[in-house]
Amino acid sequence: MNAPYKGGRGRPRLQRDAISVRHHYHVDIFVSAIDSQMHGMNIRFKDDMMELLELSFALDSRDGYKSFSIADICKLANKFYSKDFTEQERLHLKVQLEHFELEARGSLELRKTLTILELCQVLANTRKSSIYHLLVHLVLTLLVSTATTERAFSAMKLVKTHLRNKMKDEFLSSYLIIYIEKEIARCLSVDSLIDDFDLMKER
Q: What is the mean pLDDT of residues 33-48?
């Protein structure tokens, strides 16, 4: 593995860029695989859903709230949950977040939390949920709204098989909804689906 990597077919690497076989497999191939996965995710999931997940990461409590960002959390509330908060509540949310940030980084209990669920439990046990009620409201709303997206990520590896590799995005999205919401799908009558299909315009 420590031998120099000579490259496969095509133009060989220059001597100044000589690398080991280990480096080739650990870095070159790994980076290509990650790029491929990222490209696949970018074309399969809508920009709004990706932005929702990225902004939600601002609530991550790991590493002493290193990723905690008041600006991103306020943007999350304003863009995705504007109907859940009044304009005054959104202003109060920013103030609550500023106080929470100072307290979270100094509190041992809050720094030990690893998930949003644990954060809510600590706030409830320490009776601080009433102080940070808007933050708790946002967190609980977030858990409900991201559940379908998280389930879609989990279901993707089961639904997107080799035989379904060339499935178009619109059909894949519809298929995932039916797969994830099985309880709702079971309530649908086959006869009603046939009737609806019959009423559609001819292709």
A: 70
Q: Is the separation of the CB atoms in 150 and 45 below 8 Å?
A: no
Q: Judge if pTM exceeds 0.70.
A: no
Backbone angles phi, psi at 113, to 5 degrees: -70, 140
Structure tokens at 28: 């070159």
The domain segmentation of the chain, as residue ranges, is: 15-44, 47-145, 148-199
94/76 Cα distance (integer angstroms): 12
Q: Do 1 and 27 meet the contact criterion of CB atoms below 8 Å apart?
A: no
Predicted confidence at residue 189, as pLDDT, reads: 83
Q: Other CB atoms closer than 10 Å to residue 188's CB: what's the count?
A: 11
Tell me what the pLDDT averaged over the chain comes to.
Answer: 75
Whether 200 has a pLDDT exceeding 70, the answer reads yes
User: For 76-114, b where at least 16 C-beta lie within 10 A, e where not — what string?
Assistant: bbeebbeeebeeeebeebeebbeebeeebeeeeebeebe
pLDDT value, residue 1: 72
Q: Which long-range contacts (CB under 8 A, 24 or more apart) does 180-185 make?
A: 180/148, 180/151, 180/152, 180/155
Q: Where are the alpha helices (DSSP H) in 7-128?
A: 21-23, 30-44, 47-56, 62-65, 70-80, 87-106, 108-112, 116-125
